[in-house]
Amino acid sequence: MKYLDEYRSGDVARRIAAAIARTVKRRWVLMEVCGGQTHSIVRYGIDRMLPEAVELVHGPGCPVCVTPLEMIDRAHAIASRSDVVFTSFGDMLRVPGSNGDLLALRSGGADIRVVYSPLDALEIARRNPGKKVVFFGIGFETTAPANAMAVHLAKREGVANFSMLVSHVLVPPAIASILDAKGNRVQAFLGPGHVCTVMGLSEYEALVSRYRVPIVVTGFEPVDLLEGVLLTVRQLEEGRASVENQYARTVSRAGNPAARELVARVFEVVDRKWRGLGTIPRSGYRLGAEYRDHDAERVFEVDALTTDESPLCISGLVLRGLKKPSDCPAFGKACTPQSPLGATMVSGEGACAAYFHYGRHPDAVLDPGPKPTRGESDVL
């Protein structure tokens, strides 16, 4: 397959769905790890194409969703200072903290700018030596190399007014946390294609060896996802557990060695709090000792700031695969994308936001999303 339309072909999708139906003999619970996969599954109705015996549940794979509320509040505390230019990708400006979002703070006069790369933020620091320029560095391993490069260059060039508020999280420890949790239902995973493009497969092979669960690294288009489900179900039905690479057009076993080397040089692995899941041991990055002068939490002394999550939100149960968004009493009522209570509603890639936008609840307003490009509407 060479072209996008082929990954959205209705004929191919139906053939794979039929192969899944022929293969499955028992009930299985699969979790897709990435929020982009969740969005595609709900948008295209992939879960509704599967036989009843195959259930898809939605994992903690949206970095905006799992950024803890206290980290948003730390961003607000830094961004509200008159001597700071606070920079971020656009999606983080809409995530509410305890007292509104960064967009509201900007409307009140704070110098908050949307950038398209951490290197853009570094350039702002070079041009504004009298200001303290901060970049909000969030994400999984996918975005870590670019963030590491920005900090590495700032140190090498002596750009002392540039710092990064780091909230990086790592996928493999989150998978282990789900499998270790009491009442776990997940029996196999659709692995995160973009993360594995950077990190490769070795960490997932270690998980398979430890837990004996299949992990199929999968892309994001409908055909990718259905093929990933088929490969996973075959393993489960045959009693096998291995790492398979459905996304071979992008992912290699070694990943990107140069990117991995840079990340290991700049960051160190630490315990990290996840919104909705709590603290997971050794599940995040922070800047290593050599780069601490560029650590915004240290520079602005905000690392002690903590915030409690809403008690009404069941996002932790959703992220562990124990509940669906529509099981939450607040879903579509007290909790909407305009006024989210928890992790899975704060971003368009969160499971609750996807269910809301695509009408998976009688009280939700159906949002058809972007107009399909040629071939998208052929999937169902």
Question: What does the model show?
Answer:
It is built from 17 helices and eleven strands. The longest helix has 17 residues, at 222-238. The chain has a domain at 64-170 and 255-300: HypD, alpha/beta domain 2 (Rossmann fold, 3-Layer(aba) Sandwich), CATH 3.40.50. It has a six-stranded mixed β-sheet with strand order 4-3-5-6-11-10, with helices on both faces. It is globular. With 380 residues, the chain is of the alpha/beta class. It has helices spanning 4-7, 10-23, 35-44, 46-49, 63-66, 69-79, 102-107, 118-127, 144-157, 171-180, 193-199, 202-211, 222-238, 257-266, 296-300, 315-319, 351-357, and strands at 28-32, 54-58, 84-88, 112-114, 132-139, 162-169, 188-192, 215-218, 243-245, 267-274, 278-287. The model is unreliable at 364-380 (pLDDT under 50). β10 (267-274) and β11 form a beta hairpin. Helix content is 39%, strand content 17%.
